[in-house]
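Handout, section B. The chain below has 143 residues.
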Amino acid sequence: MLQPPWDARVYRNRHGRGVRTPTFGTRMPRYRTRSGLFDDMVAAQIRRLNGAWPELIRPVQFAVEDVPPSDPAPWEEPRDMMTSRCFTASHGIPARVVLYRLPIQSHVRGRTELQLAIRDELVGRIAELYGRRPEEIDPDWGL
Protein backbone atom coordinates (compact mmCIF):
# COMPACT_ATOMS: atom_id res chain seq x y z
CA MET A 1 0.00 0.00 0.00
CA LEU A 2 1.24 3.46 -0.82
CA GLN A 3 1.76 5.89 2.00
CA PRO A 4 1.67 9.65 1.73
CA PRO A 5 5.09 11.36 1.55
CA TRP A 6 4.63 13.09 4.91
CA ASP A 7 4.32 9.69 6.60
CA ALA A 8 7.52 8.39 5.02
CA ARG A 9 10.49 8.02 7.32
CA VAL A 10 13.00 9.49 4.87
CA TYR A 11 12.21 12.58 2.86
CA ARG A 12 13.79 12.99 -0.55
CA ASN A 13 14.64 16.19 -2.31
CA ARG A 14 12.13 17.54 -4.78
CA HIS A 15 13.52 15.39 -7.60
CA GLY A 16 13.32 12.20 -5.54
CA ARG A 17 17.03 11.42 -5.78
CA GLY A 18 18.70 12.37 -2.52
CA VAL A 19 17.95 12.70 1.15
CA ARG A 20 17.34 16.20 2.49
CA THR A 21 20.29 17.06 4.67
CA PRO A 22 22.11 20.26 5.54
CA THR A 23 24.54 21.46 2.89
CA PHE A 24 27.32 21.56 5.46
CA GLY A 25 27.74 20.02 8.89
CA THR A 26 26.76 21.71 12.13
CA ARG A 27 30.38 21.79 13.25
CA MET A 28 31.52 23.69 10.17
CA PRO A 29 32.32 27.40 10.58
CA ARG A 30 29.66 28.45 8.05
CA TYR A 31 26.95 26.94 10.21
CA ARG A 32 27.33 29.59 12.93
CA THR A 33 25.82 32.98 12.18
CA ARG A 34 27.03 36.29 13.61
CA SER A 35 23.92 36.53 15.78
CA GLY A 36 24.48 32.98 17.04
CA LEU A 37 28.08 33.75 17.95
CA PHE A 38 26.96 36.92 19.73
CA ASP A 39 24.38 34.92 21.71
CA ASP A 40 27.05 32.39 22.68
CA MET A 41 29.35 35.17 23.91
CA VAL A 42 26.56 36.67 25.99
CA ALA A 43 25.72 33.26 27.48
CA ALA A 44 29.40 32.67 28.33
CA GLN A 45 29.63 36.02 30.14
CA ILE A 46 26.41 35.30 32.06
CA ARG A 47 27.76 31.90 33.13
CA ARG A 48 31.02 33.55 34.25
CA LEU A 49 29.18 36.18 36.28
CA ASN A 50 26.82 33.56 37.70
CA GLY A 51 29.82 31.65 39.03
CA ALA A 52 30.96 34.73 40.97
CA TRP A 53 27.59 36.28 41.93
CA PRO A 54 24.81 33.66 41.75
CA GLU A 55 22.54 35.62 44.10
CA LEU A 56 22.69 38.65 41.79
CA ILE A 57 22.45 36.89 38.42
CA ARG A 58 19.87 34.17 39.09
CA PRO A 59 16.80 36.45 39.50
CA VAL A 60 17.62 38.52 36.38
CA GLN A 61 16.37 37.66 32.88
CA PHE A 62 18.72 38.39 29.97
CA ALA A 63 17.77 39.04 26.36
CA VAL A 64 19.46 39.97 23.10
CA GLU A 65 17.70 42.03 20.45
CA ASP A 66 19.04 43.21 17.12
CA VAL A 67 18.33 46.94 17.47
CA PRO A 68 16.89 49.24 20.15
CA PRO A 69 13.32 50.50 19.79
CA SER A 70 13.01 53.60 17.64
CA ASP A 71 10.79 55.45 20.09
CA PRO A 72 12.20 55.42 23.64
CA ALA A 73 9.97 56.38 26.53
CA PRO A 74 9.80 60.11 27.35
CA TRP A 75 11.53 59.67 30.72
CA GLU A 76 14.53 57.88 29.23
CA GLU A 77 17.59 59.94 28.58
CA PRO A 78 18.36 60.41 24.89
CA ARG A 79 21.65 58.78 24.03
CA ASP A 80 23.52 58.78 20.76
CA MET A 81 23.77 55.00 20.59
CA MET A 82 21.80 52.78 22.93
CA THR A 83 23.67 49.50 23.32
CA SER A 84 21.75 48.01 26.26
CA ARG A 85 18.94 48.64 28.72
CA CYS A 86 17.91 47.35 32.10
CA PHE A 87 14.42 47.11 33.52
CA THR A 88 13.80 46.82 37.25
CA ALA A 89 11.52 44.16 38.67
CA SER A 90 7.89 45.16 39.15
CA HIS A 91 4.50 43.51 39.69
CA GLY A 92 5.72 39.93 39.43
CA ILE A 93 7.94 40.61 36.40
CA PRO A 94 11.62 39.88 37.13
CA ALA A 95 14.40 42.35 36.43
CA ARG A 96 15.64 42.25 32.83
CA VAL A 97 18.79 43.22 30.97
CA VAL A 98 18.56 43.64 27.20
CA LEU A 99 21.63 43.89 24.95
CA TYR A 100 21.30 45.30 21.44
CA ARG A 101 23.50 43.30 19.09
CA LEU A 102 23.99 45.58 16.07
CA PRO A 103 24.99 48.75 17.96
CA ILE A 104 27.51 46.78 20.02
CA GLN A 105 28.95 45.04 16.96
CA SER A 106 29.22 48.33 15.06
CA HIS A 107 31.51 49.85 17.73
CA VAL A 108 34.06 47.04 17.95
CA ARG A 109 36.63 45.45 15.71
CA GLY A 110 37.40 41.81 16.28
CA ARG A 111 36.22 39.04 18.52
CA THR A 112 38.22 40.03 21.61
CA GLU A 113 36.87 43.58 21.61
CA LEU A 114 33.35 42.20 21.18
CA GLN A 115 33.76 39.95 24.22
CA LEU A 116 35.05 42.87 26.29
CA ALA A 117 32.19 45.11 25.12
CA ILE A 118 29.61 42.46 26.04
CA ARG A 119 31.25 42.01 29.46
CA ASP A 120 31.28 45.75 30.13
CA GLU A 121 27.63 46.18 29.07
CA LEU A 122 26.43 43.29 31.22
CA VAL A 123 28.42 44.31 34.28
CA GLY A 124 27.38 47.95 33.91
CA ARG A 125 23.68 47.11 33.65
CA ILE A 126 23.77 44.62 36.53
CA ALA A 127 25.51 47.24 38.67
CA GLU A 128 22.82 49.75 37.68
CA LEU A 129 20.07 47.31 38.68
CA TYR A 130 21.52 46.71 42.13
CA GLY A 131 22.85 50.21 42.80
CA ARG A 132 26.47 49.10 43.01
CA ARG A 133 29.64 50.22 41.35
CA PRO A 134 30.62 48.04 38.35
CA GLU A 135 34.08 47.49 39.89
CA GLU A 136 32.42 45.68 42.81
CA ILE A 137 30.85 43.12 40.48
CA ASP A 138 33.81 42.71 38.12
CA PRO A 139 37.19 44.24 39.07
CA ASP A 140 38.28 44.14 35.40
CA TRP A 141 35.32 46.28 34.26
CA GLY A 142 36.31 49.03 31.83
CA LEU A 143 39.86 47.81 31.28
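Note. DSSP finds five helices and three strands in the chain. Compare this with the example in section A.
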